[in-house]
Design goal:
41% of the residues lie in helices and 24% in strands. It has 234 residues and is of the alpha+beta class. It has a single domain, classed as Roll (Nuclear Transport Factor 2, Chain: A), CATH 3.10.450.50. Helix 4 packs across helix 6.
Length: 234
Amino acid sequence: MNLKKSSVALATLLVIGSSAFSSPTVAIEIESEAQSSMDVSNLDIAYASNVRVAETYAQSFANADANSLISLYKLDFTSTESLFADPIFGALSSIETMAMWKMLFAQKPAEYSVDSAIHYTEHNSHTNTTRVILVWDAKYKFSGTGAKIVNYGVSDLMIKDQKIIKQVDGFHANDWFRQASTTVCQKDGKAFEGPVLAGCIAKVTLGIKTNLKNTLAMVVTKIQEAQKAAQQQK
């Protein structure tokens, strides 16, 4: 498993990803060794069930299975409260989270592979809420530019009653955009340098963000239209 295990680096990623929720206690000390399996036989049933949700999330993410991922969230289409956040999409409501997964995994990305491990869990027995820190690396070819991406990230999951009620993902967005720009910011196989490279990456970054925003909005509209049609048929 080729996962970054530096507790400092992972805590930093959590701070980056969690900024959309402004939580003062998100950064934690991560265990340095990955927990590839967990013995939950003696743990509280609610805790064990919630941890299994995180394990299912990891498997669904690895399989690029949008429908399976969506089924794991507690969705409230009447609320605009943030359910998911990451450094690229920002804070997303329930319907936007649903749209994001449908958009990202409308088809499995080329050369796609994900490796992940649970690094930390904690459970609040009073609220039956479980926090799970999932560390992952994702490799794929970004369809927008055809560039190969290697993204190291952290998913901070809050799970209650076997549903994800809040998620914050952290990764280095600048590095992601730099990788996504490699096929564009070059000429005759030679990468641009200095200010020319910086300007090119900035232009590509803006283009990707605009495209993602517009595509997400279109998918949200399609979901809303489908929901409205379903209601009218009742």
